[in-house]
Automatic annotation (TrEMBL):
Ketoreductase domain segment(s): 10-193
Source species: Sphingomonas colocasiae
Protein name: SDR family oxidoreductase
Similarity annotation: Belongs to the short-chain dehydrogenases/reductases (SDR) family.
Domain of life, source organism: Bacteria
InterPro entries: KR_dom, NAD(P)-bd_dom_sf, Sc_DH/Rdtase_CS, SDR_fam
PROSITE patterns: ADH_SHORT
């Protein structure tokens, strides 16, 4: 049997992959031998990341995950380049902060469109191809990891759109896990806490830092590189009997009072 943490010859899509957590996920997968399709809406960041990584097993694609046609084309291009598709890390997300009573509908909808509808579109596009491959008798099982957040488990202040979307991702995970288990496809989610990334820089004021650090038992925010091993674990053969689960990588934030 092959070493369970190697992914040689397998192909995975990572959305929101050009920076922060996404880039850490891309680099970790490449280091484990996988072919990685790095997807992002920001072409400049995508091109820069691809040039810096410079790996022949990397395919960089500009995609708006909230647009159905672009997502379907993404999956087709992955198969065309690498011959098959074995899984997905549904990582793309945005934040647009406002208190609930002050939030404009457009601000609500923008986050729902990317963080929840986008996650569904990517899951559906990849899932269809994983089901097709399973129907052809391919022995390599399909794997999907949806990136949620502790905001989806505990709620959040000033980002009701984000919290609602990430809670929806948990439901998306459990429902897909139930539906696709008969095809041997596992679907799990990772719930991040506060990760040091450019996206969280936009909301991490001194007041924010102090309030959240007091609630994190480990006493610090997460480095992007620390979430990659736990996320990719769900894509390996070592996680073959795990599905429909939510794993928090948050320094203990979800258990704090």
């Amino acid at each position: 049997m092959s070493e369970p943490y190697r992914l040689d010859g397998r192909t995975y899509i990572v959305t929101g992959g050009a920076q922060g957590v996404g880039r850490a996920l891309v680099e970790f997968g490449l280091a484990r031998g996988a072919n990685v399709v790095m997807v992002d809406i920001n072409t400049a960041l995508l091109d820069q990341a691809a040039a810096e990584i410079a790996n022949p097993r990397l395919l960089a694609l500009t995609v708006n995950v909230a647009v159905e046609a672009e997502v379907e084309a993404m999956a087709d291009q992955a198969v065309a380049r690498f011959g098959d598709l074995h899984g997905l890390i549904n990582n793309a997300g945005i934040v647009r902060a406002a208190m609930a009573h002050e939030m404009e509908l457009a601000t609500w909808q923008q986050v729902i469109d990317v963080n929840l509808t986008g996650a569904f579109l990517c899951l559906r596009a990849v899932g269809r191809r994983l089901i097709d491959r399973a129907g052809r008798g391919d022995p390599v099982p399909g794997r999907i990891v949806n990136i949620s957040s502790d905001a989806g488990r505990r709620g959040t202040i000033g980002q009701i759109n984000y919290g609602a979307a990430k809670s929806g991702v948990l439901g998306l995970t459990m429902s897909a896990a139930r539906e696709w288990a008969r095809h041997g496809i596992t679907v799990n989610s990772i719930c991040y806490g506060v990760v040091e990334t450019p996206m969280t820089d936009t909301i991490r004021t001194e007041k924010f830092r102090d309030r959240y650090l007091r609630q994190i038992p480990l006493g610090r925010f997460c480095d992007a590189a620390e979430v990659a091993p736990a996320t990719w674990f769900f894509l390996t053969d070592a996680a073959s009997y795990i599905t429909g689960q939510h794993l928090s990588v948050d320094g203990g934030f979800h258990i704090a009072a």
